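sorry for the late reply, my laptop died twice this morning and i had to redo everyting from scratch. anyway the thing you sent over, i finally got around to it. pasting the sequence first so we're on the same page, its 181 residues, then the predicted structure underneath. double check i copied it right bc i was rushing
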Amino acid sequence: MCGSRLINYFDRNIIQACGGARYFKWLGIQKNIGSGIIQKSKLTEDYVEEHADYIIGASMLFTSDFFKKIGLLNESFFLYFEELDLAERIKGIFKIGYASRSYVYHKEGSSIGTALCQDNQKRYRSEFYVTSSKIKFTKEYYPHALPSVYLALAFIFLKRVLGHDYSRAKAIKDAFLKNWL
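ok and here's the structure:
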């Protein structure tokens, strides 16, 4: 499984990610490798491949052999965490790669309609699915981290409430109630 350099579509001098990201299971959060650095910066392929826990879903490259051995994307992860699920399933079978000369201009949030969007319904949907998938993923692969992930979600919920972002706070609450058992 191989990833590309993701470049911000709206500001092409800024990198969104160099192929992959790190996943911090105790908090259920990700950090893109190379996020926010300027386009001329160079992170080596070796560095990214050594530090990436998964390839970002906006640009994943596979061989046909990959799907024969691993199978397709898990449909229970809708929009978020499907690439993390793949990364867990390939451990010991395939390696993560980074094609530093492959560029993708990425409109982050466009698939769900939240890019540069203030529409509360779309923001609700995005927050709901990311929270649902985070809980499902943690239950599946890191059940021992579930209490700390729930605590991190409680902090995010509180931050949304204090910031008067009630739509996204409600999404976290709804996703938690739907998936917590």
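Residues 120-141 form the longest helix (22 residues).
thats about all i looked at so far, will dig more tmrw
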